[in-house]
Specification:
With 228 residues, this protein is α/β, with parallel strands linked by helices. The protein has one domain: 3-Layer(aba) Sandwich (Rossmann fold), CATH 3.40.50. Helix content is 29%, strand content 18%. The protein has a 7-stranded parallel β-sheet with strand order 3-2-4-1-5-6-7, sandwiched between helices. Helix 1 crosses helix 7. The longest helix is centred in the first third of the chain and has 18 residues. The radius of gyration is 18 Å and the shape is globular. The termini are far apart.
């Protein structure tokens, strides 16, 4: 059986460091865990994982919507984990549009935010925060205690049910608490039962299909105009 965990968050929020420190703090997890990094155009995180002795793969969406790319490939990722006899599969997603979230029903969902990214970031990050079970806040060692508590309040305004943990991605302080949480998720026996917690955007327009010309004459499909 494979325990699947989804980790999402804005670029450079510290997702990779948090995952590595968490795996290292959990006894025996390093050899029983695989990580799939989803990104848009490029990613160097696989090298970081490999250097730490963690098996990882990179999945680049290229010119496809990264959110749709993720949900179209998660079944294959699950099968990859089963073939390698991993007990844990962690997916890391960055560069998503903030309109979507890779979080799946009955699967532990984690969102990583940077304490330095701005006080309104939890509100702007959409369902990645709102639907997460756990919100990890990084770089909190660079702010005051009062600023940490204000940031926690802002996260809980968006998602009152989420556990908020502060983790130092460099020292690993706090990662053991996340490791304990990871040992709790339900085991997903196969990929056939996976369902998204939040639907993908319904928009499909000419630019999704490769159109580069600007102007209403070239816009087909679902479009919306701003009111100015």
């Amino acid at each position: 059986m494979v325990k699947l965990i989804t980790v999402a968050g804005p670029p450079s929020s510290g997702k990779t460091s948090v995952i590595i420190k968490t795996i290292e703090s959990a006894l025996g997890m390093k050899t029983n865990c695989g990580v799939i990094k989803f990104d848009c155009l490029s990613a160097l995180d696989e090298e970081q994982y490999t250097a730490c002795g963690i098996t990882a793969k990179t999945a680049l969406a290229g010119n496809l919507c990264p959110d749709h790319f993720f949900v179209s490939n998660i079944e294959e990722c699950f099968q990859w984990a089963e073939q390698n006899q991993f007990s844990y599969l962690i997916t890391e997603s960055a560069g998503l549009c903030n309109r979507c979230a890779p979080h799946l029903k009955n699967i532990l969902a984690i969102c990583v935010l940077d304490n330095l990214s701005g006080i309104n970031t939890p509100l702007k990050t959409g369902p990645m925060v709102k639907l997460a079970d756990i919100v990890i806040v990084t770089k909190s060692d660079l702010v005051s205690q009062a600023e940490r508590e204000v940031y926690r309040f802002k996260v809980q305004q968006v998602n009152p049910k989420a556990k908020v943990l502060f983790i130092n991605g460099i020292t690993g302080q706090g990662a053991d608490r996340l490791a304990k949480e990871i040992f709790q998720p339900k085991e997903q026996e196969n990929s056939k039962d996976l369902k998204l917690r939040f639907s993908m955007p319904t928009a499909l327009c000419s630019y999704c299909l490769g159109e580069t010309r600007v102007g209403k004459d070239f816009q087909i499909g679902l479009n919306r105009k701003i009111k100015i």
